[in-house]
Specification:
single chain, mainly beta, elongated, 8-stranded antiparallel β-barrel, about 10% helix
């Protein structure tokens, strides 16, 4: 909870410093586990909602709120009274992060580099309906996500958005030793500039 509050406080502070345009957007894309985590988790999908303030033509600050669902690569095997059951497993993480973006060019295509910092709540869940099994392990890490991307104007105030992101959640799972939860994602979406 402390990580989430610190992230929200940082985002509010960045918002108060802004004096220019406000934009909102959303992205969707595959989330691909990396490192030791990739040995037992398979590719999933992630969604992010975003808000931005443009401090000037080159620099944005804002906040991202996202969620990624990542399945278990191998189903857990559970034995009860001589019967073997396959149990569904999943690793889900959310994010509430403060964001900074720097635009390299101010052209039709606007490439940028960025960094997210904030809270990453993680949930590992195993379940089996017939067995009445539904267990969750939850924890929250403080992590970061370096990002590269680009905006392309498709209409007045509306941009197509694409980015690549490497997320280090700051959380670990204990399977064959502690493994850090991290993922690589390629995301596409839109960003709309609000006209006040």
């Amino acid at each position: 909870m402390r990580h989430i509050l610190c992230t929200l406080l940082l985002a509010v502070t960045l918002f108060q410093a802004a004096q220019a345009q406000i934009s909102v957007g959303a992205t969707l894309g595959p989330a691909i586990p990396t490192g030791g985590y990739a040995k037992f988790a398979k590719a999933g999908v992630g969604f992010t909602a975003e808000g931005r303030y443009a401090l000037n033509e080159s620099f944005n600050v804002g906040v991202n709120i996202g969620y990624a669902h990542i399945g278990a690569k191998e189903l857990v095997v559970y034995t009860q009274n001589g019967n073997v059951f396959e149990i569904d497993g999943s690793y889900n993480f959310a994010n509430i992060t403060a964001v900074a973006e720097y635009f390299i060019l101010d052209e039709d295509i606007r490439p940028f580099v960025g960094l997210e910092i904030g809270a990453y709540p993680l949930t590992f869940r195993i379940k089996h309906k017939e067995l009445g099994l539904d267990e969750k392990l939850s924890r929250t890490g403080f992590g970061l996500a370096p990002t590269v991307g680009a905006l392309y104007e498709i209409a007045d105030g509306l941009d197509a958005l694409a980015n690549m992101k490497y997320t280090l959640t700051g959380s670990t799972v204990d399977i064959d030793g502690e493994k850090g939860v991290s993922a690589f994602s390629i995301n596409v979406g839109v960003r709309y500039t609000l006209d006040f």
